[in-house]
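Troubleshooting log. The previous run stalled partway through. Resubmitting the same two chains, unchanged.
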Amino acid sequence: MAPAAPDMVIPGIDDVIADAELHKHGTDPLADQTMVINMGPQHPSTHGVLRLVLEIDGETVVSLAPDIGYLHTGIEKTCEAKFYQQVVPMTDRVDYLCPMVNNLTYCLAVEKLLGLEIPERAQYLRVLLSELTRIQSHLVWLGTHAMDIGALTVFLYCFREREMLLRIFEGLAGQRMMTSYIRIGGVSLEPPLDFYEKVQEFLNLFPEKIQEYENLLSGNPIWINRIKGVGYLSAADAIALGVTGPPLRASGVDWDIRRDMPYSGYEKFQFKVPVATEGDVWTRYVLRMQEMRESVKIAQQALDGMPEGRITAVAPKIILPDREQMKTQMESLIHHFKIVTEGFAVPAGEVFQAVEAPHGEMGYYVVSDGTAKPYRVHMRNPGFATLQALETMCKGRLLADVVAVIGSIDIVLGEIDR
Amino acid sequence: MDAPITGAQAVFEKFPEEPAVKALSSLATDAKYDRAELTITVARENIITACQAVQKAGYNFLETVTAVDWYPSEPRFQITYHILSHSLKRRVRLIVRLSGDDAAIDSITSVWPAANFYEREVFDLFGVHFGSHPNLRRIMMPEDWNGHPLRKDYPVEGYR
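Second attempt completed without errors. Output:
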């Protein structure tokens, strides 16, 4: 076994390029000439901050090395310096397209450590918002994926519907993207009176909009030729490389945490998990479209069955008291003061909580040493693992296919770099 | 909340039929069942054997590899592996403890290629070395970065 830190030699990305340049294949020296190019970090299809070091032979991809870290925020380290409740707004910023799901995963993990019982109404609200967030996130995926391939109209249409959802979130939480709505022990506020009406309006409207996107894309020869049969990933490779979510199900693995290891009351909802076996970009597209339809069904069930009752658990030393109570009851004021200034101690232990996020499995590993600050928070984000499968999906394909494949794994660098 | 069950013998007696328990009964040095999560500790030289054993027992999917720094306690580092079984719908957590002076362990990329990025992350942010890793280089921080930010003796706001 090699010696440990601190005197270890750390090779750099330049070595990747050197390795790639040395990459030889065949015996004819003239046939060996491959070229190393950088795609990103500013290339539009790499969504901002992903750099791919590609070795290409003509237009064929010989090898591909993702170079990440441009967006590294040190969020896991920062979590260790915050009280448990102060970590919730940080989780919004991890995968900024599905803040509610991030909030939920973290809160479920801490609630597991605390042994808190969450009221049914809060659970239904959490499910409803998770599904609306899934639709919102899939709309960004569809819009940008189609735009990467050259279809601008779909992008505009998707953002039009996404805007409706962001307005609903804004009315609910006061924020469009960084909502921090789901809190340890429940949710932060009772929804405003027009919330249910607006959600219903969206759910009535949205199925025909999905049809509209499909009318634009599914029969479009450019779209079909660019994505059908491209970026194949087998079920065995997907499992070996840690791929989750729609790319895993598109490769034929029938696995959805909402159904198979239910959390937050998902076992009460009826929905289908779309699965296909082709494992290409087209299948991932079709699957996500079906998922949006299923999300509409789940959201409708949550809306119809929304129970009455509390939106937070009964735990005065953990959950901030009601504003009105605070003005009239000394004890509530003390609890409020203590939670804000000292936080609350969480029993020592370690838990791992995973949920089915729009991009795949999102997990939080939270370690408590019995104090008011988490000892360690590790985020298992779907994109980080799926990115490892990029080379498998792109090897031997054309350079232009890389763009289609990146779009199909629905990349969010905030969750990958952390 | 049920009281945790601690100690390898107590856990193994409680869950004799659990596939991970059966697979690791000879390798485990400690075990814990807490908040409905099973944790099994193995010695560092056995990590690859342990991973192969649980993989054979049906735990087919590696979810994450990460570390916890218990500085200044010894053994300082805890390497944590979360492994999921799609067929059993259960997960098991494997733990290896490493001393601060010799923070090195074998890579499990031969069992699950998915460990590649995760081990690089642990190497980068904790400075733990993974033997036989195919591409052990920094993943988040710049190559010339000084220190390993997720170590507990590294200040939250950095050295600068």
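Takeaways: Chain B touches chain A through 50 residues (CB under 8 Å). The helical segments of chain B are 8-14, 19-24, 47-56, 115-126.
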